[in-house]
Amino acid sequence: MSLLTSLARLRALEEGIAQPVATVRHCHLSARPMVFVPLKLSGEAAAPLAAMLGTERERPRLLVVTQPRNRDLRFAWAAELAGVLLPYIEGFLADTETVERRNADPYERAMDAPQLIVPNQGGVAFTRLLGRSTRFRRPDGPYPVPESVPVLGRWLTYFGERAAYPGSALMLAATEELGRHWASGQSGLEDANLAALLAWITTGPSEEAEDPLVWPPAGPATDPGFDAEVLAPAIESGKPERVAEALRTQLEPTWRLMWQAIDLLAGLPEGASAAQRWEQDRGSFSGMATHLAEGAPPQARRDGAVAAAARLARMERAQAAYDVQRAYDDPLVMAEYRLTGEAFAGEVVETDPDNTEGEGRSRKLRPLVVIKTDDPVRLPPGATLGTPQRRAQGAELVSAGEGLVTVKITKGMGRGRTAAPGAVPEVGERVCYTSLTDDFQGSPQLPEAEATPWTHGGPPQDYVPDDEDAQEEWS
Amino acid sequence: MSDRLDDLERRIDELRAGVRKAMRHRDPATARTLRAELRSAERAWDALVSGEQPEVKAEPPRLVTVREQVHQGLRLLGAAAQPRLIVAVSDAFFGGTIRSAQLTSLRRDEERSFRSSPHGRPYYLCAALTDRLSAARGLLTLSTWPLERRVVGPLSPRVDFLTCAIAVAEHGEEHGAGDGRAARLLVRMARNIPGATDGTFGPPVPGQVAAAARAELRVHAERDTRDRAELAERATAQLGDTARLFGAATLMTIKKENAK
Amino acid sequence: MPSERLEAGRPAPRGEAMSTQHRLDALRGTTPPRPHDARAIAALAANPGCSRRALMDGAGVDKDAAARHLGFPAPFGQSPFAITRGNVFEALVKADGCAELLRMLREALGLPVAEVAYHDVENVGAHLRHAHTRALIDRAATGGQDAGTLYDHPLLTLEIAGHTAYLEPDVVAFQLGGRFHIVEIKSFAVIDGQADPAAVAAAARQAAVYVLALRTLLEELGHDPLQVSHDVVLVCPENFANRPVATLVDVRRQLAVLRRQLTRMTSLDRLLAALPEDVTFDLRPDEDGRPTRPVAELADALRGATARYAPDCLSTCDLCFFCRDEARQEGACDLLGRQVRDELGGVASVAEALGLADGTRDPAVGQEEIARLLRNAERLRRECLT
Q: Could you tell me the superkingdom of the organism this chain comes from (chain B) (predicted)?
């Protein structure tokens, strides 16, 4: 969190309503998202209790394990879940585009991809565990499960992992996304409560939002009072319909909140780079589908050393890119960097579009721009700059002081003797320059998996799920 | 009908909220009243939704009594055991129908019966005796066993476990494992005995389990036998008939008796 | 890491302790004292700067009852399913003479096969359990041949601000190579070698309380307290099955925090001195135990002791909603969490911070830098949002 967000929180507290911390939406929002609200049995790692899910707000599906301690019913529930999720996921595979690649074969990328939206981080974690607990099962052998269950497990594992990938929108947690766009007048801890956060954004803080009788927790944990007073007697009664009814009362309010959250996010215009990240998501999704179709084994329980390091490096790069893209897309995010002196904005007061450097053959066009700014610039002369107004352009800081900054354009103004029209900002134009650039750092040099040093456990063995994986109790 | 269901559901929701509010305000009396109303509303809802009058589910006829099933289990095990294990054995080998919860009051019932007519039954389900000669928590034994088998020294819980494992392994070997239940029980026991499994996931070999248990048993046997003999001797010398079966009263219960 | 001597857990010198004790008793009034359990003692370390909590815990005030009476009942409870699950798992670990536990200790710590002696301390009456625990531990520490390996349901004590807290661990102290180890059984799962870090941390804090209590006992008995290992054995279900798995957890850090906090508890007289003489947190329960103290009066009395509210309190302290409400009324930046508070460095109230941002308030000495930042931030927000 930055001082800018802290200030927004203070303002929210004073005004009694959440304050925007973004002016555009930084996540892609699917036209047909799958809203997924899972509940688990208290005290258990991943024992499903119920889920409400669907792509249409008027038609939620309720899936219930009416006797949560019965493992057969749990797997039957997982099969039911697969019956809803797999057709949704696989429905995106038919429509594809061919993507050409340098030094590699072209591949087919889905034109659109599935999007799972859960209420909170707990929902993401539960999805991942649900994936972990089902992906190794087998349709044959001593504890057979329906064929769809391990397939579901691999998809849920994939979505769970993707949710941790910065900027990916394949699986979103509603509280996270709302918190990225609005600052409430409460702590981050309290923002994890979907009802409370939405109340701050829409009507102002509400005592009721924290009352589980009015707004049941958005899962995956249930309200202990509900467990004791309602759920336990219902399970005891042995009447499945009573259990289902009880759980419906806990899920329906959250279901409504989820769609409210989606409406709020949809009300913001999409940021310019969101489509680019979604394209990566689509590529990743297609890759996973191919992987599955080729009969690759389920994801390993744990990454080997090289795979883990590679994954970490990938995530760090994605995080850096995501941060930069958001700043370029959104002046309010860029303001954070202006506050710390890594960016500045202001009005162009003077230009020298025909300025050149060097002599003879090495003579180069280097237009100069002078900007008047109120921002505290903390960039040294020579710093490489980029600008959201002209993304292809590169620039260099020449000098800064007394509220005036001189910038030299070094890239992206055309190849002619004079700058291309529009390449050099006009006097009076508002511009922003920043040292943040979206140049990806090269991948770190990591050995191939087969060359993992002994200090890191040596080359990993190929992960072959064994009988024990398949027969692991789910109790 | 759905109108009535809607009404009932609304009523049920109100009552649930009321109960929990009352609980939160520590008002048990109100909570109780509301809860009673809640139960009746829920019953009415159940009845309406399933279209039948609520009725108490009849227990399936029990061919063998709980008492007899526990006796069967203990006889097979041949050592003091916890209800959990007795239930598992009964389930694995005798198609048992008992649940652990049914065993909690058993010892007290047996004691009452013994006091009203001593030795009136061929056997009693009774206590294991601690080094203080009081009843050990959560262990059952048979009155027909010698006292040495019914007392617990410091090593006895382990010795009894190994003894039980041998019994389960051998019984399974002789009578066939039947369905998976006996095999699963043996797996659970075997994994806690060094050398009983060869580390693979396959089912343990009963002979190997029994041999491994015997090997560990030999480590403890001498000291355990000595401890037990000493305890049995003390029990014989100090306890009357009832206490010998059901345990000496602790200081606390004696105090309570005297206070009456 | 300083030497592991015991500094806390012993009563303060006599005379001083008595007057402090009288004040604390008066603070609690006619309300029966609430005994501390390990979880409560461990939670003391969660917010060491809070005087209100230190005083209430020191006096043994029932914070849960106080919060209810004030109209701010605590937001947490435990589901019966979670309780049942915990009990079932513990029973499984301890079943058949701790067969599962012995397997894990043999595998993880190389416990010799001969070491199987088991003592169920709970076999004696409740009033004798502590004495029996002492006797058994004394015998074991002395090195008696037949001293046991496992002690189930021991009853330990720890001195908290003059009160004896009885600790009934669901744990087994076991002896290996002349050292005692605390075993803590928890029913949260370890999945592919990973567990919820918050749950592990809480378990470690709780286990540290038992380690300290057992060390205190050994010291009282004239043995070396370091015979109790700072490595505790954490037993949890593995993956999605019920099969238990053991992990060694080093609790030295938790021990250090706990000792520091208990030392503070013994210096409550300093906190008491800041309170008016006649102040009391008494709930004045009637015959049925229902509080009769006027709510406003109790609230006033409590406000006399300074709280340090932080959002973390919401998961650890019964009084959290009361203190949060107070922080809201005061417009304290603490409401927004430590991160915001730290970022505002020294600006404590919302109005003050916003005044600096709007330029309607002049920065006090030392606030110039944060004031400049806030004004800049405000300018940027306005520029971007209009």
A: Bacteria
